[in-house]
Amino acid sequence: MMEHIRTPKVENVRLIDRTAPRKATVGTLYLSATHTIFVENNPETRRETWVLHSMVASVERPPTTPSGSHLVVHTKNFQVVQLLIPQERDAMDVQASLARLSRPEKYSELYCLSINPNANKEEREESWSFLDLQADYRRMGVPNNLWVSTPANSEYRVCDTYPSELFVPKSATPPVIVGSSKFRSRGRLPVLTYFHQDTLAAICRCSQPLSGFSARSQDDEQMLEAIMKSNPSSDYIYVVDTRPKLNAMANRAAGKGYENEDHYTNIKLQFIGIENIHVMRNSQQKIIDVGELKTPSMGDFLLGLESSGWLKHIKAVLDAGVFIAKAVAEEGISVVVHCSDGWDRTAQACSVASVLLEPYYRTMKGLMLLIERDWVSFGHKFSHRYNHLEGDSKEVSPVIDQFLECVWQLSEQFPCAFEFNERFLVQLHRHVYSCQYGNFLGNSQKERRDMGLRERTHSLWHQLWKDRAQYANPLYRADHTQTQGMLRPNTSPYCFKMWKGMYNRVEKSAPPRQTPTDLLTAVREETQQLEEELTNHQERIAALRKGDQTKGNAGQKTNKVCEEECRPGGLAPPTGDGPFTSPPQDYFPSQGGPPGPAMTLLLGPSKGPGPDDLSSACSDMESGVADLSSPDDSKDPDEAVYCTA
Amino acid sequence: MEFSEHIKTANVEDVVLRRPFHPPMQGTLCVTGHHLLFSNRDGDSSRLVLLLLRNIDAIEKRPSGSSGTITLKCKDLCVLQLDIPGMEECLNIARSIEYLSSLDIVSDMYPFFYRPLKLSLQDQWGLSSAEQNYAQMEELQDRWRLSHVNKDYSVCPSYPPAVIVPHSIDDETLVKVAKFRQGGRFPVLCYYHRKNGMVIMRSSQPLTGANRKRCREDELLLQAVIDGSGLGYIIDTRSNQQAQQARMTGGGFESKSSYSCWKRLHRQLERGKVLQESLIKLVEACGDHSHSVDRWLSKLENSKWLSHVHTALATAGLLAECVERDGHSVLVHGSEGTDTTLLVSSLAQLILDPKTRTLAGFLGLLEREWLLAGHPFQQRCAHSAYSHARLRLEAPVFVLLLDCVWQLARQFPLAMGFSEPLLLRLAMEVYASDYGTFLCNSDQERCAAGVKERTHCLFQFLLKPSERERYSNPLYEPTELAIWPSVQPQSLQLWRGLFLRWTQHAVHLEKAQEELRNLVIECRGAS
């Protein structure tokens, strides 16, 4: 990659604070093989800002001004870094380099594949063995006398975008399996994804049938019949087509479509109306724009939010999950879910339903497993959707963004129900795009296996788990009523909010600058040691009376906040030109302070979240004042002076 | 007055009560002079629902066969329904409610009849006097004095008897200044910033009129305010154009030529009818149960309520910025100086002054800046969002204040000593209350009506240990710093606790609050 770097180092660059354009820090800009790095000149702080090349979405260069050339870097997780470079020539070089570096053409150019996989072999292997998908099926009680594992796809011959191990109704014979797959778009036949042990109802997923206007397949009909019979107490199943009905009908002209209720006995067809990836891509761009508005009025903001349609789409995804979850848990009816190819909307609907149904998927490890199952193993096209390699921009769409946002919206309604906090979701989102780990490379299990990613990269899951202390929701209690059973969210329009933590991180003064949960985490850590000492000194009987629960919780909490965020262990720092002694850290500072431009981190003596931080957060709030002079009424020349003073 | 002559049917059996979050309940309905009483005896347990008639904003009756249904829309935004057997009974009850819920005479209102065992009328009414406030602020005493020029309310009927003014301005001058300000509301001190000695003053508009009248005493008073510091700001809560137009009706603004050391900043804050209609639209939007996100967002936008929140907070931020950052004194006024003026001055104090962020401090602020400063509560809060009555002087300025305070508390969850339940309670009490605190339109009226002798004081009650517990913020960590709110639209949210209280089942959020409270107590206990 080094050959793409025209200018490895530019001096006297200004990093501009977008909320207070007059406040800028002067420093040196470095381009390394993997990161763009800005190092402040101020010898006291020497703050560093790191941007991973693969996180760069675009680099704009507005017209040159007398003071130099601006570069505006937009990242894939909706952050903006604005630089002022004195020489136009340097700015053009940096822009050209970044344009190339941020759009790798081959997987081997990606960060996770640019490192020596054997530098830390044991840790690498351990990271991949951390999650066991089969164990999760066993936890659900599968296989059992209703659902069995089929070897049909062990070589990916039936469906190359499915996992090798599939669970199907016990009564489904191999010819039915193969026949059904032939009647489904891209061979994605109906298979089990979630089994509800209390009601014996199941969630199955597939792609649309190749029904056209009249075609039918006895095997496929038998497959759905077998799914229904695998739930002994019910005499019908729901087929949830997550597309708008019009879209589904339009597909019939292309020889695809949806199940004809005359051919399939005992199915109830339900359309949900989640829009396609193109609509979602455009909608997200609009909400990003809303988040980046400089000084919008309340009207601009609300109308922008409305016209983006984003929250409407989030609601549609959540509604799909609610429908499925209710069918399974309340009616005890199995559900077959599909969309067109069954890898976008289907993944969303099934995984939202799982989160609603099963408390386990609301824990950190559970959510990881859920993503591993419904998204990674079932062939969600990560590399296409999240633009890992230079490719077809029409394939790009924020599908998993919407799933993560549904989880966030739920966590806003049920603050005690989730083991993880918002930071966890933000971090997951980041790594879907970052390619720092091998988990999300490629578009199917087969592709990942062919690339040998387990042997060449590290897994994200283990790293997140190691850092779990900073992702913990202090309000979560395994024994809390909100934690139990199925979540029944209110999906009235007013329950949906713009996810500021995702779309509005550029705003430096944005609250919450103090969050109750941060305080709680701080107070907890403070008392941690005392608590532990206390426990140690307590007599055994007293400890037993306190109950295992509290002890278990306290045990979990002892994990020290890991200062070095998710990074494959044992990585050498990138060979940048800067004087870096610690591994790159281009993340949120984990302190409870204000969400500054998220990629900056003080490399000074690191300070954990504590009461001190909160007061320093307060003093930082002063920067919020710049917003206060409303632009609406600044026409009076008298006050214009004031506003800009 | 005999309430009984307005009660034709006092009792009806077998009435069905429907209300949010509860299953329908059958029982006996009873109308008294001030309450609707609903009781139900279910085996051994009996339940009682008590509704203050004053809380009812609108009543709708609908006959169905031989029985009738009454829908009660309350000022706390709750909607109840009563199914009453017997058409005549239904109509009688509706008539009683209509009459008794809109009593005009202050001394007929419930606070004059409320006599709980735990409280005594001998208890102190109000939290503190102007004298006490003044005595507590020693720093300002060499430049500022307490004037009793208004001791019989003759100079300004809406001001309290004692106010703080510059030392160098004598009472005679004040009387002249009062004649030059609408309603006699001459500039008085409402906040002294210890850090730099700058102050916030408030008043009403000057009566310059079409021919640009001047008042030497007024100019003198303002000059005395900035004596030594050279420059002051005037924040006019009207647009420049509105201020110009006000001259046509005898009002006006401080012109550059007459007040050369003062710089005017205009920020248009809506009030009166516009604000009331905004509330009505917002409440209507919150009651719309259609399932379209677009429709919701468009109605929310259309109500403009959040825009008003935005402008109020931004203007308060500007005011605080002038004082703290620029180091200048500020005079704030609009027209009458009894609505948006108070809104902005009290929000600015919350931003700047840590003392106002405790439970007692906040109630003290409300007492000084709203009750004593003459916000006409009775006129503004006669009706709320549901009323079909023709709008007169209603305007939810105080609710807007509470909303802004809620936004501050949400942005700074640790900085306030009080919690959301207090704001919700105040939002309810201001419209219908057992206590006399929010009765009448000014201190003078309250004294004349004997409110302080014959009713109980809400603020005193809220500070009793049992209540304090309920309304304090478990996360409170006092900070001496100013709390600058973000006024980006993205940072402001709809106050769900108030506006969606009866539509969204907030039980999960409440549980989370409880959990948080317990955890904090547990953690603090351990350390």
Radius of gyration of chain A using CA atoms only: 26 Å
Overall mean confidence score, pLDDT of chain A: 80
Note the gap between the termini of chain B.
60 Å
Model regions low in confidence, pLDDT < 50 over at least 5 residues of chain A = 506-513, 547-645
Q: What structural class do you assign from the helix and strand content of chain B?
A: alpha+beta
* Poorly predicted runs of chain B: none
Strand order of the largest sheet of chain A: 5-6-7-1-2-3-4-15
Spatial shape of chain A? globular
Structural class of chain A: alpha+beta
Please indicate the percent range of residues of chain A in DSSP E strands (runs of 2 or more).
5-15%
Radius of gyration of chain B: 24 Å
**How many H/I helices of chain B?**
19
Q: Mean pLDDT of chain B, as a whole number? A: 91
Name the biggest interface.
A-B, 76 and 76 residues
Oligomeric state of the chains in view: heterodimer
Number of strands of chain B: 14
- How many separate helices of chain A? 23
Organism (chain B): Salvelinus namaycush
Pfam family, one (chain B): Myotub-related
GO biological process, one term (chain B): phosphatidylinositol dephosphorylation
GO cellular component, one term (chain B): cytoplasm
Write up what this structure looks like.
Chain A is α+β, with helices and mostly antiparallel strands. Helices cover 38% and strands 12% of the residues of chain A. Chain A has helices at 88-101, 121-128, 133-140, 174-182, 218-229, 245-252, 277-292, 298-308, 310-331, 345-357, 364-377, 382-385, 399-413, 422-434, 445-451, 453-456, 460-466, 500-503, 516-537, 540-546, 548-557, 611-620, 637-644; strands at residues 9-16, 24-31, 35-40, 48-52, 56-60, 69-75, 80-85, 147-150, 166-169, 191-195, 202-206, 237-241, 267-271, 335-338, 600-601. In chain A, the strands form 3 sheets. In chain A, strands 5-6-7-1-2-3-4-15 form an 8-stranded antiparallel beta sheet, covered by helices on one side. Chain A has a 5-stranded mixed beta sheet with strand order 10-11-14-12-13. In chain A, strands 8-9 form a two-stranded antiparallel ribbon. By secondary structure, chain B is of the alpha+beta class. In chain B, 37% of the residues lie in helices and 17% in strands. In chain B, helix 9 (340-352) packs antiparallel against helix 10 (359-372). The relative contact order of chain B is 0.11. The chains are: A alpha+beta (645), B alpha+beta (527). At the A-B interface, helix 8, helix 9, helix 19, helix 22 and helix 23 of A face strand 13, helix 7, helix 8 and helix 19 of B.
